[in-house]
Amino acid sequence: MRTDWLAHSVLCAGVLLFALPVWLVLAGSTQPADAIARGELSLVPDLRGLGIYADVLRAGGPGVTPLWRMLLVSFGMALAIALGKIVISVLSAYAVAFFRWPGRTLAFWVIFLTLMLPVEVRIIPTYSVMAGLGLINSFTGLTLPLIASATATLLFRQVFLAVPDELVEAARMDGAGPLRFLRDILLPVSAPNLAALFVILFVYGWNQYLWPLLVATDPRLDTVVIGIVKMIGSEAQTEWNRVMAAAVLALLPPVAVVLLMQRWFVKGLAEGDK
Amino acid sequence: MATLELHGVEKRFGPASILAGIDLALADGEMLVIVGASGCGKSTLLRLVAGLETPSAGRIVLDQRDITQLDPAARDIAMVFQNYALYPHMSVFDNMAYALRIRGLSRNEIAAQVQATAELLGIGALLARKPRQLSGGQRQRVAMGRAIVRSPKLFLFDEPLSNLDAKLRVQMRAEIRRLQRRLGVTSLYVTHDQVEAMTLGDRLLVLEGGRAAQLATPMEVFARPATVYVAGFIGAPAMNFLPAALLPGGAVQLSGGQVVAVPGAVGSPGAVTLGVRPEHVSLADGGIPLAVELVEPLGSETLVHGRMADGTALLAKLPGAAPVGDQVAVALAPDALHLFDAASGRRL
After folding, report:
1. Whole-number pLDDT of residue B102
2. Within an 8 Å CB–CB cutoff, is residue A174 touching chain B?
3. Taking CB atoms and an 8 Å limit, are B82 and A166 in contact across chains?
4. What percent of chain A has pLDDT over 90?
5. Beta-strand pair B31-35/B186-191
6. Among A265, B143, B187, B267, which one is least packed by beta carbons within 10 Å?
7. Buried b vs exposed e over A101-117: b needs ≥16 C-beta within 10 Å?
8. Is B341 exposed, middle or buried (0-12, 13-18, 19+ CB in 10 A)?
9. How many CB atoms lie within 10 A of CB B148?
10. Residue percentage of chain A with pLDDT more than 70
11. pLDDT at A79
12. Is residue A235 over pLDDT 70?
């Protein structure tokens, strides 16, 4: 019993550590801006202040576009990055895992090297390339450089290598060509991995800050992460309840994606016949 | 339905020779069992015919058409894999229908053919299930169904029963044989199980180290094994091998000194290996003395493990529950003895 009590108290402390800040933001968003500015932040939400959410969504805040617009840009960007990366990774992993061609090993290592060059490392040359292509201040410019890395190639290569040879051979005997095999057998078999990776990549895309800050100065391309930062003006003027409401709203789509996809890939894992 | 011919088929992986000069001809509807210990190249031979590997030399001819360089899909050959290789995300119906869909058959044709094949195999009630919801025997049937539904020219079986328990294996063995006879499809069947080989094949090909050690009917292989390897592989319990010296005039002298008459034995005097199956060893007063080490009563027969005076092991299979003491004398049936050259292992 004593060990149980100890374990549970540690767990509870952990939960508090993570949940309290979120709760603080949630409670704070409903309270008057001047009260927060005076440091009188109550832990009890003021239900009368809930209207701020509708207001933030519709009107945004000082110096930014309405939040629904920024959420839409973020959602589009995260979706494009996640899907784009998956398409590139699946195709490149398919090539290195299933086909023998000259330069295969070299290609794999070149792909592998890009893992060591995240956006932040190559940000200046990438910006220069995007500027040269005239893609500054465009949705393409916002997403393309973040797609063009093979983060997931390694993972998919391992997933594909674990597919039994007999399955590949059975499909060959059945007359399935390479693209047909990819579509009919390989992708459905890898579905749980696809779902798990989609979640990770979506959240990665959603949380991008540095690159959108550089490449998109047009307010119409502001993501919600950029928008929140823009709403924090000079200390005195910041309407903290608006910022907090925006933060809560920015939290919802990734949480929704995690919850929805989690159901799906846990189901996929549980149905696997291992 | 078709004939299959292999002409001098070889396979090398780098410097290692896996198969050397295999010649074969299968008649229409024949079932040939390829048997051998693991690593003898039997699976490779099957994969060459399937088109999953390309031979280093030689030609493969199916129904008078050279298919050596053809893609597996273009060969019209179906294969049943050891682990079944069912598509895990597809229902039984979809598993069986997949090849037909790729061929572009209409929805109605596919449904009719899958249904008919499923009835034939007794899996009509399972069509909506996924492979993971099936037992081992049912998966096996689905794998067979996937091969049958295409009505291919040739069936390939790659140790299809090795993942089943003993009882189911006996049952499926008989069923495979019945189906193959009924459908009349030319078949190649790979196994390391000599009982499967004996019961399933019209003919056996015994492979040893990538070479054909013997190609004959099961009874011929059993009665007149071509080499010591074949003799030891076919038949259970395995044949006894006794070192001996060939004497002029149809007799051999065992290393223990006893002289055994071998009717019709010819050849130059020298070292030989005398082969005798355990069932051809009987108790006989005044025979070869045998020190009994272990007695295994199996009910219908009794296995007696013993040693002769010079230390050579000998296994006898005696009918019924034979009472056996510590010391017995045995005789070897003269008309059931096999003589092999001691050096080359070939039958004399």
Report:
1. 94
2. yes
3. yes
4. 44
5. parallel
6. B267
7. eeeeeeebeebeeeeee
8. middle
9. 24
10. 93
11. 95
12. no
CATH of B238-341, one of 3.80.10.10, 3.40.640.10, 2.40.50.140, 2.60.120.280: 2.40.50.140
Residue A234: pLDDT band (50, 70, 90) is: low
User: CB contacts < 8 Å between A and B, how many?
Assistant: 68
Mutation site for B-interface testing, chosen from A166, A173, A194 by largest number of B Cβ within 10 Å:
A173
Q: Can you tell me which residue has the tokens 């202040």?
A: A49
- Distance from the B28 Cα atom to the nearest Cα atom in chain A, whole angstroms: 21
- Say if the Cβ atoms of A173 and B131 lie within 8 Å: no
Let me know if A260 is exposed, middle or buried by CB neighbors in 10 A (0-12, 13-18, 19+): exposed
Mean pLDDT, all residues of chain B? 91
Residue A170 and residue B88: Cβ atoms within 8 Å? no
Pairwise CA distance, residues B73 & B268, whole Å: 54
Residue B339 has which token pair?
């003589």
The answer to whether A47 contacts chain B (CB < 8 Å) is no
Provide, as residue numbers in chain B, all residues whose Cβ is less than 8 Å from the Cβ of A177. Answer: 73
Residue of A nearest to B75 (CA): A173
What burial class does residue B21 get, using C-beta atoms within 10 Å of its C-beta: 0-12 exposed, 13-18 middle, 19+ buried?
middle
Sign (positive or negative) of CA dihedral A143, A145, A147, A151: negative
pLDDT-derived band at A274, boundaries 50, 70, 90: very low
B72:A176 CB<8 A:
no
Q: Which two tokens stand for residue A58?
A: 């519709």
Residue B146 has phi, psi (to 5 degrees) of -65, -35
CATH number (3.40.228.10, 3.40.190.10, 3.30.565.10, 3.40.50.300) of B4-229 reads 3.40.50.300
- Whether the CB of A173 is below 8 Å from some CB of chain B: the reply is yes
Q: Tell which of A163, A166, A167, A174 to mutate to test the B interface (max B CBs under 10 Å).
A: A174
Q: What is the tens place of the pLDDT at every residue in B185-204?
A: 999 999 999 889 999 999 99
Q: Name the pLDDT band for B305 (thresholds 50, 70, 90).
A: very high
Intervals of CATH 3.40.50.300 along chain B? 4-229
Q: Which of A147-151, A269-273, B212-216, B256-260 has the highest mean pLDDT?
A: B212-216
Interchain contact, B81 vs A166, CB within 8 Å: yes
Range(s) of chain B covered by CATH 2.40.50.140: 238-341
The per-residue pLDDT for B292 is 92
Contacts of B73 in chain A (CB under 8 A): 172-177
Residue A270 has pLDDT above 50, yes or no: yes
| B321 contacts chain A (CB < 8 A) | no
Of B79, B89, B130, the CB nearest to A173: B79
Reply yes or no on whether the pLDDT at A93 is more than 70: yes
Mean pLDDT of B233-258: 88
Identity of the residue in A169, A175, A189 whose CB atom sits nearest the CB atom of B89: A189
Complex-level ipTM = 0.83
Q: Looking at the complex, does the CB of residue B56 fall below 8 Å from at least one CB of chain A?
A: no
All domains of chain A in start order, with CATH: 1-49 (no CATH), 61-272 (1.10.3720.10)
Please measure the distance between the N-terminal and C-terminal CA atoms of chain A and give it in whole angstroms: 37
pLDDT grade, residue A241 (50/70/90)? confident
